[in-house]
Amino acid sequence: MTHGELVGRCLEGVDVVSHQAAMVGLGADFGDVAEYVSHNDLGTATLLRELARRPEPARLVLASSMVVYGEGRYRCAEHGIIRPDPRTPARLDACEFEPPCSFCGRALEPEAVPEGAPLDPRNVYAATKTQQEYLCAAFARETGAAVTALRYHNVYGPRMPRDTPYAGVASIFRSALEGGRSVRVYEDGRQLRDFVHVRDVAATNVVALGSATTGTFNIGSGEPHTVGELAAELARAFDGGEPETTGEYRLGHVRHVFASTERAASELGFRASITFAEGVREFATAELR
Fold it and tell me: What is the pTM of this model?
């Protein structure tokens, strides 16, 4: 039985599809590129082809990601909203982690990124998630299917995978603590992210699956925190040692990206309910897989 035939059989009698499957994270190195494209894009294309063959297209909810934005939204005091150039090894080696204004070189102020921001994927995983969105949009136009894309921000919570380079930063930090190692924080730890609890993400999917609303939505807490804050709060709640800020970097990482959640609130009726402090306390001792 081919993959397509297996997917088609799984879709028998199905009216709504929640597409969560993907190879995630930044990965080990560029050598993972074929696997990312195979799992994320070819896998999605196979699903969409089988959905398009049905007499009536099923409603589709896609698990997308904030990585499609690349860097988040920035404002220059002189030039307004700016999309900074990709960070260079020379600047990162000099510990110049903040992206400057592309026109005047001044410091930029990060802002919450809205769904209408340009897509600018800056690593392999991000490129495949962007392509997933494009494939699903084409599927919706050509079949009339209802498609909702949920751009997850930094999801964390119980049952995250342990000891894998493909997991998110929360899982990597927690794995270190579980293994008796100190938490290593890249750059200076001041990178801003939106950490959203997995139960809030699950709740959003339930809402989206039962809603008549389509479109693209940021799914986050609406409250940015630094990566250093996450490391410190997690280590404290676990009763582990002080995190180590290393100054190391990965070129595919971006500096600041956090969500504007107003569209999800107004159109889907969703707001996150689990606070950062509450979620991190639970995650510090929650089961990993």
Answer: 0.94
- Which of these, 149, 133, 287, 122, lies nearest to 218 by C-alpha position? 149
> What 3-state DSSP class applies to 34?
helix
Q: Using an 8 Å Cβ cutoff, are 79 and 108 in contact?
A: no
Task: Characterize 233-249 residue by residue with b for buried, 16 or more Cβ atoms within 10 angstroms of its Cβ, and e for exposed.
Answer: bbbebbebeebebeeeb
Question: Catalytic one among 125, 152, 156, 249?
Answer: 125
Note every long-range contact of 75-81, with CB atoms under 8 Å and residues 24 or more positions apart, other chains counting: 75/108, 75/109, 75/111, 76/101, 76/103, 76/104, 76/106, 76/108, 76/109, 77/106, 77/109, 78/103, 78/104, 78/106, 79/103, 79/104
Residue-wise pLDDT for 174-226, tens only, equals 999 999 999 999 999 999 999 999 999 999 999 999 998 999 999 999 999 99
Is 36 one of the catalytic residues? no
Q: For residues 113 and 256, what is the distance between their CA atoms, to the nearest angstrom?
A: 10
